[in-house]
Amino acid sequence: MNGLCPCTRKWPRCGFDPWRKVSVPEVLLEKARLASQNAYAPYSEFSVGAAIRWRGGHVSTGANVENASYGLTLCAERVAVVTAASEGHREVEEVALWVESDKAASPCGACLQVLVEFCSDPSAVRLTMASRQGARIETLADLMPQPFRLREPDPERA
User: Fold this and answer.
1) Sign of the CA dihedral 6, 92, 145, 132?
2) CB atoms < 10 A from the CB of 92, how many?
3) 98, β-bridge pairs
4) Could you tell me which residues come within 8 angstroms of residue 46 by beta carbon, excluding any fewer than 6 positions away?
5) Active site residue 45
6) Where are the beta strands (DSSP E) in the chain?
7) pLDDT grade, residue 1 (50/70/90)?
8) Is the distance from CB of 52 to CB of 116 less than 8 angstroms?
């Protein structure tokens, strides 16, 4: 967060705690949790599932897939994006991540950059990051405030 209140986007903060237990879209989060059960994580034993809702209502899921050559490992978020993009989906509306752990984790920078590629307004895309202990909600713009872009996004591309 940039120090601004996530509720009002103004200073000072209102006291909102982004790590508190929150109510999230149950269907999307459950799909992410189920996807995490398909993770291939023999090296880290860190299972992650992602569920992404696209414009039009389509939901894609993904799980992390590790490789002995660590650089070839795929994160759950990118698996879900690539699956949907290859089917023609172009506009991310909401993301849910489930980590089979006691603490929620944020997406890595590479995953955030890939998600930004498929949204015209990162401040409108809500990311729910959840674990067995609770959930945290941020916008894509909060987590990736200055993404790399070669051109301005086209909101009509979807």
Assistant:
1) positive
2) 28
3) 49, 130
4) 64, 99, 100, 101
5) no
6) 48-54, 59-63, 92-99, 126-131, 134-139
7) very low
8) no
Specify whether the CB–CB gap between 52 and 84 falls below 8 A.
Answer: yes
Q: Residues 84, 13: contact at Cβ < 8 Å?
A: no
Q: Which CATH architecture has domain 26-142?
A: 3-Layer(aba) Sandwich (3.40)
**pTM (2 decimals)?**
0.81
Could you give the CA distance from residue 97 to residue 115 in angstroms, rounded to a whole number?
A: 13
Residue 131 near residue 99, CB atoms below 8 Å: yes
**CB distance 60 to 89 below 8 Å:** yes
| Secondary structure (3-state) at 30 | helix
- State how far the Cα of 105 lies from the Cα of 92, in Å rounded to an integer: 20
Q: 12-66, pLDDT tens digit by residue?
A: 555 555 545 544 477 899 999 999 999 999 999 999 999 999 999 999 999 999 9
Catalytic residue among 66, 77, 91, 94: 77
Which amino acid is residue 116, in one-letter code?
A: V
Return d(Cα 62, Cα 40) in angstroms, integer.
11
Q: Hunting for tokens 């006291």 — which residue is that?
A: 15
